[in-house]
Amino acid sequence: MGTVFSFDVRGGDPDAVRAALEEAVAGLHRVDEVFSTYREDSQISRLARGELTVAECDPEVAGVLELAAEAERVSDGWFSPRYEGRLDPTGIVKGWAVERAARVLAAAGATGVNVNGGGDVQLLGAPGEDRPWRVGVADPLRPGGLAAVVVSAAGARELSVATSGTAERGAHIVDPTTGRSAVTDLVAVTVVTPSLTWGDCWATAAFAMGSREGLAWLESLPDVEALLITAGDEVRWTGGLAGRLG
């Protein structure tokens, strides 16, 4: 997946959590083997070339493609599992893989789980008694600075924070209507929602839409808050985001 992953795991039986961590890490490596578009021998590359059918792939491939199709439907095509006409579901794979790894650890009894994949995080449980998770959102226009700090709501057991933009990787987000790099007034979109699988998709789709359409669309989604930053240093946000900042 071409990025760095980190784990912050609290509580639970040490042996059970250690075994789950090994399982989660092995799962991430397996995801890269199956879904990487940079590996000629990956199942997704072979599927795109017509050398395999979905039925001949691991069951996870069909599951991810179903999720990608749902993201495309909800975003009215602004999220797409294709690139230049070729199958490429990588826009959903990282968030899905991070969330899946976090749930492996939680299922093993960890009381607080934080899995970070390239700056996008899935949090489950809590870091400690009466302590919320706090996630810093990098300021894309001021390297080293923070644009906001997201705090998990009281009693919430699931939280994800995902950012799409040009600050780290340049113009890598494609406008599915043109097939070329998305040209918008935005430099970053951060989405706050329980599931990183969807949060990562929604941030990408909203970035491609641009600030006005993207903000209106994000406002329409249930259990989603967002922060949008334009190239002109304007900050826009959904109505409920203020209650999630600390």
Could you please describe the fold and organization of this structure?
The protein is built from 6 helices and 13 strands. Helix 1 runs antiparallel to helix 4, helix 4 packs antiparallel against helix 5 and helix 5 packs antiparallel against helix 6. The longest helix is centred in the N-terminal third of the chain and has 22 residues. The protein has a 7-stranded antiparallel beta sheet. A two-stranded antiparallel sheet has the order 2-3. Strand 2 and strand 3 form a beta hairpin. With about 250 residues, the protein is of the alpha+beta class. The two termini are about 30 Å apart. It has one domain: Roll (T-fold), CATH 3.10.520.
Question: Would you kindly provide a brief summary of this structure?
Answer:
With 246 residues, the chain is α+β, with helices and mostly antiparallel strands. It is 35% helix and 25% strand.
